[in-house]
Amino acid sequence: MNFAIASPDIALTAELQRKIDNKTKPLGALGELERLALKVGLVQQTLSPRLDQPQMIVFAGDHGAARAGVSAFPQDVTWQMVENFLAGGAAINVFARANGLGLSVVDAGVAHDFGPRDGLIDAKVAPGTRNYLDEPAMTAAERDSALARGAALARELAAAGCKVVGFGEMGIGNTAAASLLTHHLTGTPLADCIGRGTGLDDPGLARKRELLARAAARAGLPATATGGGEHALAVLAEFGGFEIAMMAGAMLGAAEAGLVLLVDGFIVGSAFLVAARLQPAIVDYAVFCHRSAEPGHQAQLAALGATPLIDLGLRLGEGTGAALAWPLLRAAVAFLDEMASFESAGVSEKA
Ligand SMILES: O=C(O)c1ccc[n+]([C@@H]2O[C@H](COP(=O)([O-])O)[C@@H](O)[C@H]2O)c1
Ligand SMILES: Cc1cc2nc[nH]c2cc1C
């Protein structure tokens, strides 16, 4: 998989900042929204950015390790929630509708036969990954196929005129995979990357910790923030889910096409970590939407030097944090476009 993501040219920074500073407000008074406006202006290389056709994509996949007891819920919930997405009844459906976002649902590797279905993109790599307690979760070929399929989806969106894409996921057991990815790609101690996911009790959490320590010991890969792209690819094949790999590919494809990326919580963050180890400049295209209550998310944000937009104690996934933060980004671009300047409104500047 060859991606070439360059940081946006910063030559426009001073002019964009001048436009922001000339709006009718004290200097810097729109805080984080000003940084968002600047970011989107640089990504699109214009003083008048637009965020047309905002789209959420929810990637679903199953995990071989789910059957070993790393989640509070049974694996079947993955396909059952996909049905819920298709019927329009999940939280992400509600928030996407409320905030004017399109929503696509992708079967990246659910252990269920949906048959041909309206509204479901069939990109199934395999019906669930293998159990990483015993063997690598996926082969290199499966990983590369997931990455390529994700990138192709993002390119199709870009070709259709989409300028901003939000990422969401569904997969019972995927907090465990995200914990292993976060540990190996940031160097954070494994225990600090593991949380209760969908709601494990204390004995369940202890068992999850024990199982994941065993999986890490079996694979024997280094845990480091400086491993680069090859290391990230090895870690992804060892522990990843197909939804995580496909999201990483879609993020890379989207950034390469100049889209703004809405990064959701802990699992989406683990896909982003993989993408960032492959192509570090991808951070310039990303908006970190919310802080997940899952403890490993803090390790990701710290490793990326990212401060999320909102902190609502969410731990649902599906892209809900991204869909909820999206209106803030829309407002940032709107103020840049529509707000009067001191000159146009005849407002006196600071003495
Ligand atoms: O995105 C998050 O931060 C997040 C935190 C905890 C749980 N989830 C969701 O819960 C599921 C995974 O939880 P688990 O306990 O089965 O690993 C998966 O479908 C995720 O969308 C998501
Ligand atoms: C009901 C349910 C909904 C979800 N949405 C994302 N992950 C989920 C996990 C469960 C268990």
Automatic annotation (TrEMBL):
One of its GO terms (molecular function) is nicotinate-nucleotide-dimethylbenzimidazole phosphoribosyltransferase activity. Catalyzes the synthesis of alpha-ribazole-5'-phosphate from nicotinate mononucleotide (NAMN) and 5,6-dimethylbenzimidazole (DMB). Its EC number is 2.4.2.21. InterPro entries: Nict_dMeBzImd_PRibTrfase, Nict_dMeBzImd_PRibTrfase_bact, Nict_dMeBzImd_PRibTrfase_N, Nict_dMeBzImd_PRibTrfase_sf. This is Nicotinate-nucleotide--dimethylbenzimidazole phosphoribosyltransferase. The keyword Glycosyltransferase applies. The keyword Transferase applies. Belongs to the CobT family. It catalyses: 5,6-dimethylbenzimidazole + nicotinate beta-D-ribonucleotide = alpha-ribazole 5'-phosphate + nicotinate + H(+). PANTHER family: NICOTINATE-NUCLEOTIDE--DIMETHYLBENZIMIDAZOLE PHOSPHORIBOSYLTRANSFERASE. Keywords: Cobalamin biosynthesis, Glycosyltransferase, Transferase. One of its GO terms (biological process) is cobalamin biosynthetic process. The active site is at residue 318. Pathway: Nucleoside biosynthesis; alpha-ribazole biosynthesis; alpha-ribazole from 5,6-dimethylbenzimidazole: step 1/2.
